[in-house]
Specification:
Keywords: Transcription, Transcription regulation. One of its GO terms (molecular function) is sequence-specific DNA binding. This is AraC family transcriptional regulator. InterPro entries: Class_I_gatase-like (IPR029062), DJ-1/PfpI (IPR002818), Homeodomain-like_sf (IPR009057), HTH_AraC (IPR018060), INH-QAR (IPR052158). It is built from 15 helices and ten strands. The protein has an eight-stranded mixed beta sheet with strand order 3-4-2-1-5-6-10-9, sandwiched between helices. It folds into two domains: 187 residues, 3-Layer(aba) Sandwich (Rossmann fold), CATH 3.40.50.880; 58 residues, no CATH class. By secondary structure, the protein is of the alpha/beta class.
Length: 344
């Protein structure tokens, strides 16, 4: 399989090197020849200087033909919200991208695919800091805010920087099977698989950022961290309001204004995030995880997992945990590999 990386000056090196190492590691596991042939392309060819100063030798994309690549991976980089720069990148790339069997982007590389019209009426993801600009520039794209990567048909998009490694592992699993993908992940010392729908970033951190940006008081702004330290305790509106020295009604109104969600939904988000991390990380019993993360019992946690993720905690661990078997039961069938996190 021929995998081509499209990059440009000020591209992010990890967007390229991370996925490339995944494919190279998969090649090293093969006894009957390499599975992936890697190539590097740019608008003009020659040396390309990444944002970190790394220099990568490339071929001119004009020398490529649509059938030369089975997979095209478009890097992210600095300044991709500039319309003139986007046009300069899209023009030579578009005919190649439209002819590839599988087209992918890492981080802000989604801006390039969107500018080429390849993401119109499709689900996509980009780095969380770029979501607002992306929605403004490309209203025809159904951009999502939480997933690490999204597959919509033959097009895959992934979120911030290191998510390109997760995407590449998913491609290897699709091409060569789960056993190979798991072995590659172990060799690279990364999580065996983060589900595509796992949030890009900590709910605690983003809660703090959102609250502070909306003028929250110091106590209300720090509340997300306070909640995260007490997930196993009772965290109803009355207790949270008392901690912030407010009435329940005033607290609920101010919390929603600062955090953009209800207190109950936010607490559930943090509990779900903590339970996901515990299921991925080790062998702690599901009963204990349910108690420590505040769900109370296994049945309540099971209901939340089914409602939000469409999968039970047991199946989640079997598929995504570090101790997962090589051939776990599938979550669902079809071409969409994303594990959805549904609204509460």
């Amino acid at each position: 399989m021929n995998v081509g990386f499209f990059l440009f000056d000020n591209a992010l090196a990890l967007d390229i090197a991370g996925p490339a190492e995944v494919f190279a590691a998969a090649n090293r596991l093969r006894r009957s020849g390499e599975a992936y042939a890697l190539s590097y392309w740019s608008p003009r060819g020659g040396p390309v200087v990444t944002a970190s100063g790394m220099i990568i030798d490339t071929q001119p994309i004009a020398a490529c033909t649509p059938d030369a690549l089975s997979t095209l991976i478009v890097s992210g980089g600095i300044g991709l919200d500039d319309a003139a720069r986007l046009r300069a990148l899209v023009e030579p790339l578009e005919p190649i991208a439209r002819g590839c069997e599988r087209v992918c982007s890492v981080c802000s590389g989604a801006f390039i695919l969107a500018a080429a019209g390849l993401l119109d009426d499709r689900r996509a993801v980009t780095h969380w800091e770029d979501v607002a600009r992306f929605k403004t520039l490309f209203p025809a794209v159904h951009v999502e805010t939480d997933p690490i990567y999204v597959q919509d048909g033959h097009i895959w998009t992934s979120a911030g920087v290191s998510a390109g490694i997760d995407l590449a592992l998913a491609l290897v699993e699709q091409d060569l099977g789960r056993r190979v993908a798991l072995t590659v992940a172990r060799q690279l010392v990364v999580f065996l698989h983060r589900p595509g729908g796992q949030a890009q970033y900590s709910k605690v951190l983003t809660g703090q950022i959102a609250a502070e940006s909306r003028g929250a008081t110091s106590r209300l702004g720090a509340l997300s961290g306070w909640i995260a330290d007490r997930l196993g305790e009772r965290l109803d509106v009355e207790r949270l309001a008392r901690h912030c020295a407010m009435s329940s009604r005033s607290f609920a109104r101010k919390f929603a204004a600062c955090y953009g969600t209800t207190p109950a939904r936010f607490v559930e988000d943090l509990r779900l995030e903590a339970a996901i991390g515990a299921l991925e990380a080790g062998r702690t019993s599901i009963k204990r995880i349910a108690a420590e993360t505040g769900f109370g019992d296994e049945e309540r946690m099971r209901r939340v997992f089914h409602r939000r993720l469409g999968i039970s905690p047991q199946s989640f661990r079997a598929r995504f945990g570090q101790c997962a078997p090589s051939n776990p039961p599938p979550v669902s069938s079809g071409t969409d590999s994303t594990l959805h996190i549904a609204p509460a």
